[in-house]
Every structure is written in structure tokens, then in C-alpha cells.
Amino acid sequence: MRVICVKWGKKYGKEWVYRLRDMVSRNLEFDSFVCMTDKPIEGVDCVECEPGLPTWWSKVGLFKPGKFAGDNLYLDLDVVVTSRLDGLVDAFLTEPDKLWSRDDFSYSLLNHKPGIGPEMRRLLGGDGTINSSVMLWRDDAGRKVWDDFRPEKMDEVHGDQNWITQALWPDGIRLLPPELVCSYKYHIQRGASPSPVVVFHGNPKVTELSRKDPLRILWES
After folding, report:
1. Residues 10, 134, 85, 183, CA torsion sign
2. Under a CB-based contact definition with an 8 Å cutoff, are residues 138 and 97 in contact?
3. HSE (side-chain half, CA atoms, 13 Å) at 119
4. Which of 82, 88, 120, 173 has the fewest CB atoms within 10 Å distance of its CB?
5. Sign of the C-alpha dihedral, residues 146, 150, 151, 156?
6. DSSP type of residue 57
7. How many CA atoms lie within 13 Å of 105's alpha carbon, on the beta-carbon side?
8. Cβ-contact 126, 173 below 8 angstroms
9. Which residue, 137, 154, 130, is CA-closest to 63?
10. Cα separation values, 92 from 4, 108, 110, 130, 162, Å
11. Is the link from the previous residue into 118 a cis peptide, with omega within 30 of 0?
């Protein structure tokens, strides 16, 4: 298993890469940890981002054929890993020729949000989307994300996860069990217990939590 993250631009400092690597190291046996980035990071195996793909669109480059052979686990820099990740791997290994990800917290593929107008549906790329904070795939399982991509897609849909969904859903995507990946905003702040991966999409980020918050302690340890 290769673990991959993406760091593009200045939004996140290199400490986010180090801390993600440390959290994963405590919770998964893996072969390598790679950061796809526009600027090398000392002490980390780095791969250059594909040109012309800024911000979150850099994730399209993950699926360039031949780029990441073998089994891959991608994690956004702003997630917090709270416990063992074996459940993610076990789910993925049931159908490793598919891209595995979490159904989106706001715009579910399985439970469509009512009242979505044509403009919002266009931005979503359909009726719903995956959340691309956590993804697993083998070899070139997601190559259509790269092969079918055109620069104008960055204007047509909201972000990378909308395009990944549009390119692969439904035949090429399987959804991770929801108890493995949760949202800080929609679950933890409403009293739920943390899942193995907690996604800090939007705001707040983990650095905005109290220093006594268990999730921030995990992230900083």
C-alpha cells in the first residue's frame, strides 16, 4: 500500500505533510508515503504535480496512467486519523479494480438533496458526488479521470471530486462504509464519535480547535 497526499500552493505548510504521515504511521502498515507537490519537502518522497492543474485540481494528476502502480490510499492534508485504517483497506480489497471513496456529506449520491436546481446540478456534475478526501484504488482503476479530462472542466464543475464522480460513477466507484470516514462539521460537532478518519472540509480546520480538543491533540502528537 502506498499512501499519497497532495500539497499545492501555500495554504498548508510542510508540517501538515509531516503530521499526516505520522498519524498514518501509527495506524497502518504501508510501503511508502508520497507527497505530490509543486515544491519539494525535506524528508518526504515527493512527486511533482502535473502542470496546469492548480489547487484541488491537482488531484486529477493522481490518475495519470502509470503514475502510481499498485495499491494506493489517498488522504487530504486536513484530515485527522484517529484509529486503525485496516477497515478502509479491507473494504477496498473486496473490489480493488474500483475507486473507493466516501459518499459526500452534503450532496450524497445515494440520497439526493431535494430542490437542487439545474445550475447546482451542473456544478455538481450530476445529482451528487463523492467526497475525495479519502480515496483508494489499484493501478489505473481511475484512468478515465485523467484520460477524459479537459481544462474547461475546471469551469464547468465545482471541483475535483465532482469531475471524478462524473468520470467514474457508477460503474467505476464503490462507496466506503460511512462509519469509516466522518465529517467534523456534520458529525463530530453534532455529538457523534470520531471515525477512523475525520474530514475537516471547509471550516473549521483542526488548527482552529482548542489545544485541549482530542482531535487537535492527535494531530499535534
Report:
1. positive
2. yes
3. 0
4. 120
5. negative
6. G
7. 17
8. no
9. 137
10. 16, 20, 19, 15, 21
11. no
From first to last of the 221 residues of the chain, give the pLDDT tens digit.
999 999 999 999 999 999 999 999 999 999 999 999 999 999 999 999 999 999 999 999 999 999 999 999 999 999 999 999 999 999 999 999 999 999 999 999 999 888 888 988 888 888 899 999 999 999 999 999 999 999 999 999 999 999 999 999 999 999 999 999 999 999 999 999 999 999 999 999 999 999 999 999 999 99
Q: How far apart are CA 27 and CA 76, in angstroms?
A: 16
**Element holding 167 (H helix, E strand):** helix 160-168
The CA-to-CA distance between both ends of the chain, in Å, stands at 24
Domains and CATH numbers, the chain: 2-220 (3.90.550.10)
Q: Which residues pair with 42 in a beta bridge?
A: none
Cell of 28: 497502518
